[in-house]
Amino acid sequence: MVELRTRYLGLELASPLVASASPLTGSLEGLRRLEAAGAGAVVLPSLFEEQLTLEADNAGPHGYLALVDKAKATLQVPVIASLNGVTPGAWVEHASLLEEAGADALELNIYYVSSSPKVAGSEVERRYLELVRSVRQTVGIPLAVKLSPYFSSVANLTRQLVQAGADGLVLFNRFYQPDLDLDTMEVTPRLVLSTSEELRLPLRWVAILHKEVPASLAASTGVHTAADAIKALMAGADVVMMTSALLRHGPEHLRSVEAGLRDWLEDHGMQTVGHLRGMRSQRSVRDPAAWERANYITMLAGYPDQVHTEAH
Ligand SMILES: Cc1cc2nc3c(=O)[nH]c(=O)nc-3n(C[C@H](O)[C@H](O)[C@H](O)COP(=O)(O)O)c2cc1C
What we know:
By secondary structure, this protein is an alpha/beta fold. Helices cover 39% and strands 17% of the residues. Strands 3-4-5-6-7-8-11-12 form an 8-stranded parallel barrel, surrounded by 8 helices. The two termini are 34 Å apart.
């Protein structure tokens, strides 16, 4: 029997397959199904500061804290709470509440679209670091930072985030992008789930950062199949996170991903998932530039043979 046990953020997980924040993890029923289907850990939906302001008159964050509490009472797997704030004070205050409610770890979902031409990228980064430092000073539970990929130096920023106190990095969040409706000519919210193609972005960064930053790495965006999970682990992810695939096929889809992962490991003579992890990270490959720009030159040199037109 292949061993899937994994460490993430210092926590012991029975499997590297983790359910990321989504409406599925927002109900006890969804959480139960995810655990039954083999999730190694669950990340609750983010507690958004704006929601709290709306509720401020009476309810406060009670609903969310109750979910943490119920999840902890019901599940065996680690429960990671998630927070999305706007003001520094609120991040810190809510982080404490989530820790008190019993969360095993905290994911800071820094989902922020910096649209002001007056705010430099360095200033945005400074705010991120400050935020992580202040939350770190307040809570004792492990902290993960869930980032967007839109930074000019992901490697430098992630290193600084770890120095500021992050125990893990979730690479990456996937911004929901508004669309335009040509009939109504209105900006419309339109939720489009990811595809496996989108794994390439986290895959590259996981490969580059594996053992380069002293932090746990979670691959998020585009993990749909066992093949996707295997690739992310091979690049160096400690865990892979799934949302779109579970929304599309239901929590039970985790079973087939786990079965596929086990079969692959067995077929390749690997007894543990640890054998696979980081096997093809940037440090481990013969040509480290393959994860960087040289890849592009090779691709162009091989054009059009290396172009895959999607035919499925
Ligand atoms: C409907 C929906 C709700 C989500 N809610 C949250 C959330 O509350 N907090 C968060 O950090 N990410 C949230 N996400 C992002 C997912 O956790 C995940 O990072 C993203 O969907 C990319 O992974 P995927 O390709 O497996 O879907 C949400 C995604 C979807 C589709």
